[in-house]
Amino acid sequence: MTKNTILVATMAIATVGTTAQSCVALATSTVGLAVLKQILLGGITKGLNIFSNKDSFMGNQLIEAALPQQLRDLNNTLQKVGLSNLVQKEKEYIAEAAAFTVNTSRPILINAVNSLTAEDAGRIAQGGTGVATQILRERTSSQLMAAIAPKVDAKLNEFGLVQSLNTALSGTNLLGSILGGQNSSNMLTSGLSNFAAQQMVNGLFNIIESHEQQNSTTILNSIKAQQ
Known about the structure:
- This protein is mainly α.
- The chain is 84% helix and 0% strand.
- It has helices spanning 3-51, 54-59, 61-64, 69-80, 84-99, 102-114, 118-127, 131-159, 161-168, 174-178, 185-214, 216-224.
- The longest helix has 49 residues, at 3-51.
- The protein starts with a helix and ends with a helix.
């Protein structure tokens, strides 16, 4: 056998070997990405199920932890002046508004999960636990806020929450000062709705991240197999 023939044969074997390795890597990558997506979708379903139930929403510590400081200050002020019952009513209204956003949030999050790529899986493998949720947060937070804030605003207007708060505070501008110096009823409701929507978005991501952490070993093992 001539040297040229040996060289060609060697190159052919190397090419076949590389192609086989690429196919295996591709298959492993596909499996790892599928596992990642399945777990994230599970976290989304878990979160939206909580949103669908008023009592579950109100009793969830991850949602409570997402309460914006402005709403926390408002509730503390109301409690200090003996209006804990109004705080409870506000929380119930926000929980009912949250259920109204579920069908709006679901497709946004599902589309984002289905759009994850092998490059995203690589970033998650390098970054560790919580990175998958962070990617979803980066890609959907603004879209979620834009989509659900009007729905929250409509519900809180329907419930007359700002009117109840203003009446309870005897016409003072305390509500306006807490919500950023706004004066008109429409502006106050819009401000309150935005803070409530922020709590919903951040609370939902808290739940998804918690679910990701609970399944972190499965996620990382599945996607690191392709490395």
